[in-house]
Amino acid sequence: MIQNLLDGVLTGAIVSLGAIGLTMAMHMLRFANFSYAELMAIGAYVALVFDRLFEALIPAARAAIGPLSLNWALAAALVVAMAATGLSAVAIDRLVFRRIRQRAGPLSMVFASFGVALILRNLITLIFGLKAQLYSQEIAFAVILSRDPLILIKPDQVFVLAAALALMLIFHLVLTRTTFGFALRAVAENPALAQVAGVRLSAMVAAVWMIGGALSAAAGVFYALTNHLAPTMGHNFLLPVFAATIVGGIGSVHGAVLGGFIVGIASGLALQIMPSGYVPAMPFLIILAVLLLRPHGLFGEEQA
Amino acid sequence: MSGPALTVTGLEAGYVRDLPVLRGVSLRLESGSLTAIIGPNGAGKSTLIKAVAGLVPVTAGRVLLGERDITGLRPDLMQGLGIAYVPQTDNVFRSLTIRENLALVLRRAPDRARRLAQTLAMFPPLAERPGLRAGALSGGQRQMLAMAMALAIGPSVMLLDEPSAGLSPKAAAEVLELARGLTGRGVSILLVEQNVRETLRLADHCYILAEGRNQIDGPAERLRGDPVVAEIYLGGRRVAAP
Amino acid sequence: MIGVVSYLAFFLTMAGILAIAVLGLNLQWGNTGLFNGGVVAFFGAGAYGLMILGGRPEAGQFGGFQLPFPVALAGGVLLAALIAWAVGILTLRLRHDYLAIATFGVAVAFESVTRNAEWLTGGAKGLRGFHRPLEAAIGDPFLFSLAFLAMVLAFLAAVYLGLERLVRSPYGRLLRAIREDETAARSLGKNPARLRLAAFVLGSAVMGLAGGLYASFYAFISPQDMAPILTFQIWAMLIVGGAGNNRGAILGAVLIWAAWTGSGFLLARHAPAEFQLYTGTIQYIMIGLVIVGMLMWRPQGLLPERLAISQTGGEAARRSASRDLTGRETE
Ligand SMILES: Nc1ncnc2c1ncn2[C@@H]1O[C@H](COP(=O)(O)OP(=O)(O)OP(=O)(O)O)[C@@H](O)[C@H]1O
Ligand SMILES: [Mg+2]
After folding, report:
1. Less packed terminus of chain B by CB within 10 Å, N or C?
2. What's the C95 CA to ligand 1 centre distance in angstroms?
């Protein structure tokens, strides 16, 4: 029970990171982006490439950081992956979504995002193979927190939770303390007025993709660090991050964070009452419950 | 006064292709003047201002800022040219605080903190609680904040779309007096107003718009005495009565 | 000779079944502007519904009622319609993409049920054993395959004619009116949510019919048959043929199914051995490219819609009236 709760909190942190950019992009561009979660997979695999590269170039970077299985090479690769994934997200928008939104409406973009997801996921499969991979073959030993009930926690998990929370805090400060953050919130609320206030929309759209890509990459690396890399990982997170945005209310960053933890913890606790095979459907049940009880989510505004 | 601050000639603009709302509107905003646009609902007054601000696509005609052609310029660049636009509705960011709203428009100003303080000082009710979310403000205070956001950038041209709508008579009069006062400091103001009588009293020049076209224009004093204007907009007979 | 003919019969049977599903999707997307991200679940509901009602009994397994083919088929269709109704009720009042997300969720949930609920769906091993209509009476497998093809084509023709009549009727015009301008439709005193729900349920029922035919063709169904790629294939068929055009939907089904089987055949034959594992991956990329490429360069498909109300297309008209990011700035 407590073990499941802990695992759920960890999953929740990853889902939250993934959902922050999605909720902003969904609100700003007004379409559900089915290719969004693939950014997590892109980030995780880019980090794999650079991890191997840095390890080969700088042998000293192979040293693990403290008790973690994370080493300096992967830490540096994480930063590179965040930047690279942000740039890929901007590039995909320029290449595909911008062209479509100039001529057609939001639903055509939903449709296109379906296709983009399929392409991205299978390109990753083609390049990296179907098999699951690990950043490090070394076994990270779990620390036993309690024997009865048995509760285990790995140092990597503690790191992931702390790092995810730190990233969310940084983004929160950006949103609430910087004029760049004000501009992001202004565009989300009223794009026309934001332009009047001197905000360039295309720059903000690029910024949202950049931030979303970077946070998703971190989420992908964190998942891969505590589990493994697989080409399907993005796809598997798609429903959870959508559920998190709907629980929180589309457009609400804080809602997405809370929603992510709700989805993660609910999925963790669901293991108590249902066979693990059904857990992928848990976010769907959460979506249904929200649509029944509070269709616009915890913090969402009504929108047509 | 040195030539017009803003010149609009033969402007055609609309929201849907092949369906212009403005069908050839022209006007001149003299430097340092308060020029009003009046007209019935749906005449295209807001559309005219939005087209000048770059928010509605222009299909024909010109907009000049001084000598400079700004027709169809990206709306986010207008602020940098000294044009401030206060929309008729939704003219503040409700989810941002008073201070954040002002900081946003002053984003690029090198002396942001000083200008923010200066602007707040002009509006004591806003200065009292700068941390309040704009969504929690009363209608009058919200309008005040919208004016403050426009003034913060130190504009040379202001486009005000019914700034007194929905306000108490007292607050409405204050807003119009504020606008009148600004022209004394060299700001040129294009004002859309519903209250014709008050507008004709305050404005220097007045344009009457209907169905997307110029109808009548002239100095406000002259229009005040114009029998046609009196008949249509001032409720004919009552003007004649004592 | 019989080999070629029987392959052709198989090809056309599958193409016909898929075309029925594409017609169902066309009613939703093409005519009403509803995005269904879980086509596979409604197709699957028809398939599993048929097998549960019409299959043979197995120990420890619910179902196996051995109901006659028409009843079992109708049951599957009804199941698909019921699921669509429940999802539609919850989402059709909301922002348009909620339906996309919810239907995608249905597909994920459906997959976990098919894989895990062994008592109901047989789990990974699936459900087998179904008395195909007239199989015993005809006897000869080759003749039977022709007869089955004829039945599929008859269903296809019936669905095509029914939908053609529907979209040309006042009801069909209303659907397009709602797609293009919901506010205007509402001002005519119509309830857009109800009309959309009806179109969504009907379209999903048609997909269920296709699924039922699919399951009865193989007399076997398993989670393998219900891979998520099916949704993408059917979408690709619709966008290639031309959304809003029922003939286009059928043409797209035949073309994409031919491209799919053809590319599968070529890859299996000519791709290097170490690559064989990835032939599916390449095919998936191709489907993705077809979808994105069509949307970018020929969104109207090969056979464009003929009944459109406005020339600019519904979404464009709707967009111009709404406050969004895409309208003004030429980035
Ligand atoms: N966003 C929009 N999309 C489509 N048409 C619009 C839009 N805004 C206004 N219109 C139409 O343009 C015409 C002119 O509207 P506008 O708002 O400019 O009038 P107005 O003179 O400002 O009226 P009011 O006194 O009511 O503010 C009206 O027919 C209106 O229906
Ligand atoms: Mg107006």
Report:
1. C
2. 25
